[in-house]
Amino acid sequence: MSRALPLPIPMPLDVKLMNTLAQALGLVFAVLLLALVVAWLMRQSLFNLSAIQVQGDLTHNNAVTLRANVAPKLTGNFLTVNLERTRAAFEAVPWVRRAVVQREFPNRLKVVLQEHKAIAFWGAEGDGRLLNSFGEVFEANQGEVEAEDLPLLNGPQGQAPQVLQAYQLLSTMFEEADVVLERLQLSGQGGWRAQLDSGAVIELGHGSLNEIQARTRRFLATLTQVSSRFGRDLESADLRYGNGYAVKLRGVTTVAPGEKDVVKNKR
Fold it and tell me: Of 85, 163, 218, 231, which is the most buried if we count CB atoms within 10 A?
């Protein structure tokens, strides 16, 4: 003979509400207690910043000076100091390109620096700006530049990497011809102009880097012959012609052999 099982008695609504409220209050209490513990820990002298270790490139700066300049800008302790602001403070120091900041428990910061490596002056002569090996423009004391024969590059804003790439390609070609490329400029209209250490100015024209290289290669291939023929140094050259180039030697104007029409049309 089967026996019916008793049905569970439902929990009264007020009891459910009381249990839910008790759990919520318990959770709030735990969160508040944790916050108090954290706040207490953050006030302990154990976590006061006691040292900033500076490593990496220190050619133009030293660790003592860097710490003295940056430390007053830092607020908080080991747990609360803002690493992003600390990084920005170090990168605001002249010659510092990049800073990586890390915490070292319990009360130290470790900073690894990368400095700019100046490979060219940038802008108009005397602007005081420099160009690093990444094609980035930065400002620093030019008196601290180690190399004395840096080229002067110039171009529209945002075009520094392209100008640097062009210089690296063209300077190698000029060096092979025993000529030093001293200046390179890209105009706002896209025209390229070069200047040699002798003072000679070369109009390279518009176009892609491949086109500029091709014109330069053609020019250098016959420059020695033209200069030797007249026994004069180069004063200027214009490579903006499809079938040749025009040159002006000191004291005489001529063109590459077989290209007299170029000068005639130019005049």
Answer: 163
- Secondary structure (3-state) at 199: coil
Q: Residue 113's beta-bridge partner residues?
A: 56, 99
According to the model, what pLDDT value does residue 229 have? 76
Question: Rg (Cα) of the chain, in Å, rounded?
Answer: 35
Answer whether residue 8 is part of any domain: no
Number of H helices, E strands in the chain: 6, 13
Query: Which amino acid, one-letter code, is at 5?
Result: L
Cβ distance 46 to 106 under 8 Å? yes
Token reading at 19: 């249990």
Distance in angstroms (rounded) separating the CA atoms of residues 44 and 76: 12
Question: What local confidence, expressed as pLDDT, does residue 235 receive?
Answer: 92
Q: What is the pLDDT of residue 200?
A: 95
Which residue pairs from 4-11 have beta carbons closer than 8 angstroms and sit at least 24 positions apart in sequence? none
According to the model, what pLDDT value does residue 262 have? 40
> The whole model's pTM is what?
0.75
Does 142 share its domain with 93? no
Residue 99 sits at φ, ψ, to 5 deg, of: -130, 135
Name the stretches of the chain with pLDDT < 70.
1-15, 33, 36-46, 252-267
Tokens 């250098």 belong to 220
Please provide residue 176's backbone torsions phi and psi, each rounded to the nearest 5 degrees.
-65, -25
The reply to whether 171 falls in a domain is: yes
Residues 150 and 206 in one domain: yes
Angle between helices 63-70 and 83-91 (to 10 degrees): 120
- Specify if 258 maps to a domain: yes
Residue-level pLDDT at 255: 52
CATH number for 79: 3.10.20.310
